[in-house]
């Protein structure tokens, strides 16, 4: 990524559709919005329909706050919306195929979240969280696509 390219946080702003899979547990579909709240911050809000493996259907929502990292980094901190505490720090780097990738790790008590974010050349955002802990062992995979071309 060259210095004249837009910052990743600016590139992600707008409306997205997503599909999230938790194999053997749930499929989630929804919409996410990333909107700026100041020059160096943005808000992520999603609404979703959850279909559990047993056929149960639920609705849900979640929010995060993003804080732009200082140059030369091309990334942002993902903060929990309710507490402002750091969930993950994402610093995106170019890959040989033209995509941008960031890796992160978060430890919450005895649980560990290892994450990878990839913005591909087709402008899809792929997010994977591998979650392990005493009572957890699963992978959450989400693919985001722009909700409209005007975004």
- Mean pLDDT reading: 93
Shape: globular
CATH topology title: Lipocalin
Number of structural units classed as domains = 1
What does the largest sheet look like?
A: 11 strands, antiparallel
CATH H-level superfamily title = Calycin beta-barrel core domain
What would CATH call the architecture?
Beta Barrel
Layout of secondary structure:
Layout: H1 8-12, E1 14-22, E2 26-38, E3 41-52, E4 57-68, E5 75-80, E6 86-91, E7 93-94, E8 100-108, E9 111-119, E10 125-133, E11 136-146
Antiparallel strand pairs: 1-2, 1-11, 2-3, 3-4, 4-5, 5-6, 7-8, 8-9, 9-10, 10-11
Question: Could you explain how this protein is built, in words?
Answer:
With 151 residues, the chain is mainly β. The chain has a single domain (8-145), classed as Calycin beta-barrel core domain (Lipocalin, Beta Barrel), CATH 2.40.128. Helix content is 3%, strand content 65%. It contains one helix and eleven strands; from the N terminus they run αβββββββββββ. Strands 6-5-4-3-2-1-11-10-9-8-7 form an eleven-stranded antiparallel sheet. A hairpin with a 4-residue loop joins β3 and β4. The chain is globular and about 45 Å long. The relative contact order is 0.19.
Quick gist of this model?
With 151 residues, the chain is mostly beta strands. Helices cover 3% and strands 65% of the residues.
What characteristics describe this protein?
single chain, 151 residues, mainly beta, Lipocalin, eleven-stranded antiparallel β-sheet, 1 helix, 11 strands, globular
